[in-house]
Specification:
Mean pLDDT: 84
CATH superfamily: HIT-like
Helix content: 25-40%
Radius of gyration: 16 Å
CATH architecture: 2-Layer Sandwich
Distance between the termini: 28 Å
Number of strands: 5
Strand content: 5-15%
Bound molecules: zinc ion
Structural class: alpha+beta
Strand order of the largest sheet: 1-2-3-5-4
Number of domains: 1
Largest sheet: 5 strands, antiparallel
Number of helices: 6
CATH topology: HIT family, subunit A
Shape: globular
Length: about 180
């Protein structure tokens, strides 16, 4: 009966500055211009054991120009981050192929999550620059947050805890299986 259990350990580790998001194997090759301290660059890098690295980084999909990973500190189940592989912080720095691939990937996950975790709606957004709330202002990333009727109840407002019905690992497995 793990479902509906309330847990929020990610918030604590986030507040305490846990650096586990950048832990894991060392890349075999970084994308050109990568910031080695950036977890998105780390997720976009190449590894000798690609499958193991994807699991550690929670990468669920990647394209020629794009990488998609589960947010380690989710606002809701299935909270995804989608980023260009290149470490760029401004929209005008993306070329047309990158823009297009990111939009296609966002679209694909709205369909996948509607099916896989029965998401009923989505918030999709981008925080541009630190003033707007970007946690990693040097590397553009879109947030895709699945929504369900009644998920925005009093809890997030009152105690900074959120109801997550599935562990990150279980969701990563489910997405990996669905994409096979
Ligand atoms: Zn980066």
């Amino acid at each position: 009966m793990d479902q509906n259990r309330i847990w929020a350990p990610w918030r604590l580790s986030y507040l305490l500055g846990d650096k586990s998001a950048t832990a894991g194997p060392e890349p075999e090759a970084w994308v050109e211009g990568a910031d080695h301290h950036c977890f998105l660059c780390r997720a976009a890098a190449s590894y000798i054991d690609e499958a193991a690295a994807r699991r550690v980084s929670l990468v669920v999909d990647s394209g020629r120009h794009t990488v998609a990973l589960l947010n380690r500190f989710p606002y809701n189940n299935g909270h995804l981050l989608m980023a260009p592989r290149r470490h760029v912080g401004q929209l005008h720095e993306l070329n047309n192929e990158e823009h297009l691939e990111i939009m296609h990937m966002l679209t694909r996950f709205t369909r996948l999550f509607s099916d896989l975790i029965k998401a009923e709606g989505f918030n999709i957004g981008l925080n541009l620059n630190r003033t707007a709330g970007a946690g990693v202002p040097g590397h553009l990333h879109w947030h895709l947050v699945p929504r369900w009727t009644g998920d925005s109840n009093f809890m997030p407002v009152t105690c900074d805890a959120r109801v997550i019905s599935q562990s990150l690992e279980a969701l990563w497995e489910a997405v990996a299986e669905a994409r096979m």
